[in-house]
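> Could you send the Metallophosphoesterase prediction when you get a chance?

Sure thing. Input:
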Amino acid sequence: MRYEHVRTNSDRQTIIRVAGLPAPVTLLHVTDSHMNASDLTEGTETLAESIRLYNFDALDTQTRFDKALAYADDLQADGVVLTGDIVNGATAGNLAFLEKRLSGLRAPYLYTPGNHDWEYPGRPWGEATRSEQYPKFGPFTAGDPAFRALEIGGVLLVAVDNSTYQISEAQLAAFRQALSRGLPTLLFMHIPIYVPSLLPDVVRSWGSPIMMAAQGWDAGLMKQWQVEPPGEATLAYYELLLSNPADNLIGIFCGHVHFAHEDAFGRGSRQYVTAAGFDGGYRVIRLLPASGADDSAGKAEQA
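Output:
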């Protein structure tokens, strides 16, 4: 697999030339919108308290999300990818809002949950609550919030839910199978993979290394963030991404930390962290045939 990451000097656009790609593919990546369309009558005081604690303006975040989806239509995007924390909790109001907005998209979409999507007021944070809330995301994930693969224009888009900082054996096996198809593959997750150059900014912003398989945790911080040490499947997944054995993992795209970042990862791949949607962030991903590509597509986009 031959591919080239083109420098754009823009946090809002990624261009990758891919050998053998039959035609250009354009995607829009949106993450961390942190919307709340909850009706306070849905729950108890814990729901109202949760809304106050997140401190995001409900109307502003919804407006920015609507603007991003409208931009996808304007771009005539071939696909839209949403990598978690799109809503704050799987409340009835939030799910109804998502269903209405996403059903109006012209392009197919791929959705993977973030920790705030399934976090629910009054419920403990962790795997038990995620499993409890998972069925609510079935309509947005073709019935499987943990893993989904979608082929668009000869490119395989893979969504893996790593919102507990862990990967299961089933997800690892499914991802191996996806890579074995040999298609140029883009991986989408909520939480970034540990990259040394990303660590300083993450710790500066959050006081903790909130990346998957990160170095720099101590026991106190792990307890505070309710993060467990990476399990065997998570470590094997990390090594698989680094080794890129079929040379067809061309990019990793994620969010979670609320700022943009780009750096090399593993053998020939790059990781792109997209800025938060609640702050107007998004990323246009342009995949171009390696020969005869039109450089004019590399102009920075402005929504």
